[in-house]
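At this stage, I wrote out one protein, both as residues and as discrete backbone shape codes, and that material follows here.
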Amino acid sequence: MIRYALTRLALLLLGLFVASVLIFLTLRVLPGDIAQVIAGQNSSPEQVIAIRSSLGLDAPLAVQYVDWIGGVFRGDLGSSLLTGTPVVDELAEKARVTVPLGVMSLLVALFISFPLGVLSALRRGRAVGTGLNVAAQTVAAVPVVWAGMMLVVVFAVWLGWLPAQGFPRAGWSDPLAALRSLLLPALTIGAVEGAMLMRFVRSATLQAIGEDYVRTAAAKGLTRTGALLRHGLPGVGLSVISVLGLQVAGIIVGAVVIEELFSLPGIGRMLVEDVSTRDLPMVQGELLALTGFVLIVGFLVDLGHRMIDPRLREAA
């Protein structure tokens, strides 16, 4: 198990290194010039060149990358070229919105997918099971932006239960208002991700129903539902754990779009704004932090799954 963990850790570090190279090189080929943005439209070419030199943007790419990745190893992701604010400070501030949004979205997805997925499998071939399966496929195919707009129309415009946009100025000092502002975005992401996860739960439940130990329990007097709930659900839960890393990645991608749609001051919206201004250190730090978070979650989920599942422990 220790050897497996070390191997996975080495792959994690390799993935972060490859991601850092791709992020750095991709941003260098994007159109636009941050030096021109800082200098202004009426600046002379000499002024733009001087700004580019003062920011170190005229150095060879290899030198720029080494300087940046060296700072990353020291815990320094750089500073904004426009405001001078450290990237780490900005990420910590925006994470107070994005992290709760992600946690709430994941809880909504699990709350939707697990019971409905099990019910869909138990009622396979009946109207309830077929209806749930069709609904899951339909919602999973819906773009998250369109889903968010529909939920705004229903819960904000028609019913007036939840705010359509924004985050309270007081932040988490007013927790009830903060939670209300995040509930609709979390429902949007959670509904789409939950529909995708529900299909996986349904497949895992159908597989569990066909297992020998579940059929044996049913033969001893338990109903099929009772045998599944008592003996089959732990296996279904283990199967769900194995895909949580992918769900977290989907939630992060959804947060980038949803924060812009709902005007939430999170990491996703900050990333969109920094890309538009071509603030390279900010975008680099944000993308690397998000990529690292997804890889670390996948690493922890993989280790947790292997520690919980006795079959995987024996294989290791």
Q: What stands out?
A: The chain is about 80% helix and 0% strand. The mean pLDDT is 83.
